[in-house]
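Input record (one chain):
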Amino acid sequence: MKRKGWLIAFAAALLLTLIVVPVQQSFSAEGNPTATAITQSGLNNQFHLDHVVKIYVPSTVKGDIPITDAAHQKFVDQALTKLSGWFGGATAIPGEGAWVDNNKTLIKEKVTIVYAFAEKLDKDSLNQVVDYAKKLKEDLAQSAISLEVDGKLYFIE
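The corresponding structure, as predicted from the sequence alone:
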């Protein structure tokens, strides 16, 4: 139960970092002023990607032991390589995650959000991403890795 509380607090803190990150959403044109504006603009009929996949790369092992910047960058580069290979490109942005531990102490850590937009997501591509998140979880000895797909956050345990 303590782990779930920690995960919920960690997720909330990570989601706050997303306030400054633009998130693409898919809208139907019916009754949606933004979608109507798009269909009546120069963006109409332009190539676009409907889905986004994000992996939150922690900078710690075992939840709270910091790793070196070089080691963290190695994991970020690995995630960039994987997502670029699967989806054609990826972007990494820095963030800061935080949660409150059992002693009511604020624990903060540097995270890097590595994300890729995709034209389509199918079972096989999602399973590749989940398998990679599981490997990252093992490599960093984390209790879970945060994986966001189309605005929904999943904890890969």
